[in-house]
Each structure stands twice: as C-alpha cells, then as structure tokens.
Amino acid sequence: FIKPLDVPSLINRVVQLFERKRAPAKRVLIVDDDKRLAEHYRLVFESANIEAEILENPTEIINKVNQFRPELILMDLYMPDYFGPDLAGVVRQYENWASLPIVFLSSETDLDKQIDAMQYGADDFLTKPISDSQLLSAVRSRINRARQLEALISRDSLTGLLKHSSIKDAVENEISRAQRNQSSVSVAMLDIDSFKQVNDTYGHATGDVVICAIAMLLRQRLRQYDIIGRYGGEEFVIILPECSLQQTLQILDDVRQRFSTVKFRHQDSEFCCTISIGFAMNTDFPGRNGSELLIQADNALYYAKRTGRNQTIN
Ligand code: GH3
Ligand code: MG
Ligand code: MG
Ligand code: MG
C-alpha cells in the first residue's frame, strides 16, 4: 500500500533523489605547449579528483574533444605553431561544443590582448603565474556553472527529467554506442491511460501531480544508468542500456504495476491511474537508428492501448 501523495512531499522526495546521485568527476582538457607545465596542471587536477588529459597534437583537437568530452578546456594563448584563440575558434565551429567553457591561461597581461583573445569565444582569462588553488577554484566554479546551465536547458521544469530534444539525442547516442559495443539497449515509450479524463475530472493541477508521481517512481525503480525523459505532455521515454528482454520486461512491468497501486487524492475523492508501455530492443532491429527504434516502441505502445491499456508490450 502506498500513501496518497501531495505536491510538497512529492517535490521533497524528488529533490532527495536528485541529491542522492553523486555528481560524476569533472573533466578538463589541457592545451599548452609547455609539456612540464601541462603535466603539472594535470597532476593538480588529478589530486583534486578532476580527470585531466593533455592535448598532445593541436590538429587533433576536435577528435580529442569528441573522444574525451571535456567539460572545460584550459588553453594556452601562445604556442609556437598555434594561436590559442584560433584553436578555440575551431572548437566553436561545432554546434555540440558551442557552450563548452574555454578558459585561456597565459602570461599575457596586456588587457587589450586579453579582451581580443576572449572575442574568439573564450569564457575567461587567467594569468600565469597562478596558484594551484586559484586554478582549481576557477575551473571548478566554471564547470559547476556550466552543469547548472546544462541542467536548466536540457531538463523539463515540472519533473526534472530530460526534455524532448535531450531524450531524443540520448536515444541516438545510446543506440550508436550499443552498435559500436555490440551490446543491447531497450527503448520504451510510456503513456498515461485515459489522462484526459483525469484532467477533466480532477483538474489540470492534479493531473500534474500524477505526471510528477510517474517521474518519481521511474527514478526510484530504474537502474542508475537508465535514462528517463519526458517526451511530451504525459508521455515518457526510457532508455535501458544492456538490458535483456526478460530484464526489460520485468523492470518496466514492475513500474506499471506499482503505479497502478498509487492512490491520488483530490478533495474528498481518491483515485488510481494506469499507464501503458511499449518497448523495442535494438537487437530485434539491427541497423536501425534511434528515431526508428522510437517508432517501433511507439507501435508497441499503440498496440498496448488498442488491446486494453495498463500493460507492457514488446
Ligand atoms: P490514452 O489512454 O489513449 O492515452 O488516452 P488519453 O486520454 O491519455 O489520451 P491522450 O494521450 O491523447 O491525452 C493526452 C492528454 O494529456 C491531453 C492533455 O490535456 C493532457 N496533458 C498533456 N500535457 C499535460 C500536462 O503537462 N499536464 C496535464 N495536467 N495534462 C497534460
Ligand atoms: Mg605557450
Ligand atoms: Mg498521449
Ligand atoms: Mg494518454
């Protein structure tokens, strides 16, 4: 038996769940022609639990960024064969990396030259010599800020789940990753049953509580590395990497069953809601991309709706 849920306690529990997940280690890419200095920075970062890699060959910057996926680039201004701002300009040409923080670190103290360098799309300018703790705190706060912005941009404000475009991107990424690793991934689409009726009977605000409750239940029941998004109004997409057919069915149907027992309250009445789930596995559709797999999941969902709702269909 699960107690009826109200908005404040829901929000509290969602926040608690958010905080329980530990933040992943930060990642910094160091670009400096002075190998000893670069290595020194790397050790400083490493001792502070920040993953750091040094770019050995500046012509490889895009490959390196795509492979290492840094959350900040620490860039020397003057290098014998390269001008830092030109390299920053190369990174900025890629839409994916348009918001990646780039921080120049140089002994250049001429303010005009600093400002000039910033115009190439850098976010900050630190001057050498710099103490280790100053460097760490500048880099940490930059990355934290970038993470906050990223969360605001990519997350749905009602539920805190990934929003439409972000979950779609995540599906594409996970499918191509699975293809590379020859592993399996399941993509599920979930839709609340007869939700119009819930809104019509109990009002839109109560409908929103139901939507939040699903988000919370999904966070609780899915595994840490599963990815959850709010695909549309009362539709959700779930990505389950490396999950067998049996496991997928078990995890998703467990969510469906549990949700059907949650009691919602509106004034003096109590009510329950159900959900329908359709899912597809990449292994059943070799060579298909993310959006194609989403269509397969949607077909399964449509079938679940047509044949009685409140069920999980592959
Ligand atoms: P079905 O079982 O076939 O899914 O029936 P349904 O009534 O749920 O039909 P449908 O999925 O088409 O209805 C979606 C409804 O969800 C319509 C819309 O008013 C409502 N809705 C969409 N977004 C929100 C939201 O953010 N909050 C609330 N409260 N309602 C929403
Ligand atoms: Mg230099
Ligand atoms: Mg719908
Ligand atoms: Mg619906």
UniProtKB/TrEMBL annotation:
Any one GO molecular-function label of the UniProt entry: diguanylate cyclase activity
Entry protein name: diguanylate cyclase
Residue list for modification 4-aspartylphosphate: D76
EC numbers, comma separated: 2.7.7.65
Catalyzed reaction equations: 2 GTP = 3',3'-c-di-GMP + 2 diphosphate
Keyword Phosphoprotein listed: yes
UniProt entry tagged with the keyword Endoplasmic reticulum: no
Keywords: Nucleotidyltransferase, Phosphoprotein, Transferase, Two-component regulatory system
Covered range of the whole protein: 239 to 552 of 564
Enzyme class: transferase
Ranges where the GGDEF domain occurs: 183-314
Top-level taxonomy: Bacteria, Pseudomonadati, Pseudomonadota, Gammaproteobacteria, Oceanospirillales
Organism the protein comes from: Aliikangiella maris
Domain Response regulatory intervals: 27-143
